[in-house]
Automatic annotation (TrEMBL):
Residues recorded as bearing N6-(pyridoxal phosphate)lysine in the entry: 31
Gene3D superfamilies attached to this UniProt entry: Alanine racemase
Protein name: Pyridoxal phosphate homeostasis protein
Known function: Pyridoxal 5'-phosphate (PLP)-binding protein, which is involved in PLP homeostasis.
A Pfam family hit: Ala_racemase_N
Keywords, sorted A to Z: Pyridoxal phosphate
KW Acetylation (keyword) present: no
Molecular function (Gene Ontology), one example: pyridoxal phosphate binding
Family: Belongs to the pyridoxal phosphate-binding protein YggS/PROSC family.
InterPro entries registered for this protein in UniProt: Ala_racemase_N (IPR001608), PLP-binding_barrel (IPR029066), PyrdxlP_homeostasis (IPR011078)
Alanine racemase N-terminal domain mapped to chain residues: 3-214
Cofactor (UniProt): pyridoxal 5'-phosphate
Amino acid sequence: MSLSEIKSRIAAAEAAANRATGSVELIAVSKVQPNERVEAVLEEGHRVFGENRVQEAAGKWPEFRERFQGVDLHLIGPLQTNKARQAMELVNAIHSVDRPKLATTLARLAQELGQCPDLFIQVNTGEEEQKAGILPADADGFIQDCRDLDLPVKGLMCIPPVDEEASLHFALLAKLADRNGLAGLSMGMSGDFEGAIALGATHVRVGSAIFGDRTYSA
Ligand SMILES: *Cc1c(COP(=O)(O)O)cnc(C)c1O
């Protein structure tokens, strides 16, 4: 598939949900992709990208940014506190705020740096043992704690369990965001972004449908 195809599918999903054209931000997830593929998407004029590792993002984006103006970079993967400073200096948004220790670290660094990326709180909607994210029952309290720390919380993010109906998780995330007065909803990937848009996604994170399959080297 191609970037333009994904964009037209997003536009169609926006229209079907009676939502304004352009109300959904497409984050092109470039993790692990060869530089030529990322470059091709930059050449097409796209500027919003997602990476799931700080190290990898730091390795390729400074150079791309020198050549392409206006890149908007989103960290969508787990963030260790010892990488928080580097992440904050590199990315425009972090979608994986998932625990109190990370929140307090981000707040301290925000003071020190005088800036903070837009933040999304990751919710473990499927309550999966191995998955990051705050549990749904703890979400309201954690959102309040982040606000008390003056963190710029823009929305919530989730990654539904692979073997479950994603829409149930999207609906739960939308409900949690709504009752906390949060406008941002980071949900929907290659296989389910249209369903996520129907349920209110403001940011979809699409990788393989744009770039092709990821081939991980051992
Ligand atoms: C890799 C990744 C995506 C993109 O997945 P695709 O299925 O390739 O679209 C989205 N969100 C997160 C958190 C990811 O790690």
